[in-house]
Amino acid sequence: MLISDAKRALFVHVPKTGGVSAGVAFERCCPDARSKTPGVKPPLGRHAPYGRILRAEPGVADYWSFAFVRNPWARMVSWWSMIHDWNHSHGPASGKPQEGATRMRGNDMWRAAADYSGFDEFVLRGTDELPRVGRPQVDYLHAPEREVDFVGRTETFAADLAEVERRLGGDPARVPHRNKSPHGSYRDYYSDATRDKVAEVYAADLEAFGYTF
Fold this sequence. Notes:
Elements: E1 2-4, E2 9-11, H1 19-29, H2 50-56, E3 64-69, H3 72-89, H4 97-101, H5 108-114, H6 119-124, H7 126-129, E4 142-143, E5 146-147, E6 150-153, H8 157-167, H9 192-201, H10 203-209
Parallel strand pairs: 2-3, 3-6
Antiparallel strand pairs: 1-2, 4-5
Helix pairs in contact: 3-5
C-alpha cells in the first residue's frame, strides 16, 4: 500500500504482481508517498486489501486507486520460486535459520511454506493452510460499494504502468523489474492435480480477468 495525499492517489499492492516495481514508479511520481496510516495499530502492511485501507482511512475513498493482477498459475510459480530461493539462502534449508528469521523476507508465511516438500505441496496444501496464498486477487480490489479504479496486468506491465504514471502526472520511464524470479515456463511446473487446484482456488480471478492456463 502506498498513498499520496498531494496527488490523491492510492496503490493497492497485491502480492506477487510486480508491486515492488509499481511502488518505485509511484514514489517517483509522488514524492510524498507514504506506506503508513497514522494512529492505526497494528500497521496495515504493504499488502493491505482495498477494503481494509478504506476502513482505516475513509478519507481516501475518493482517491484514484490502482493495482496489478497476474495469471494465477504464473503467480503461484513465481511465489514458490521466490520462497524456494529464500529458503536455500536464508531460511531453514540454509543452515542459518536464525539469520533468515531476522531478514525482511523471512516472515512467518515464508518459513511455513519452506517446510513443504516442493511446488506440488505448496499448491495443494499452501492454498488451504496459508491464508495469503489461498486468497484470490479480486479480494484485494473491492470495498463495500467501491472497487479499485484501474487494474493493470503483469502480462502488459510496461504499458499499464506507463498509463499509471501518466495518470499521476509523471513522465513514463522504464522501471526495472524488481524481485524477478528466474524460472522458465510456468506450465512446466504443473501436474493435472495442481493445475486444477489453482483453477478452483482462484476461480474468481479467472472469471474476473479471463485468465486461462
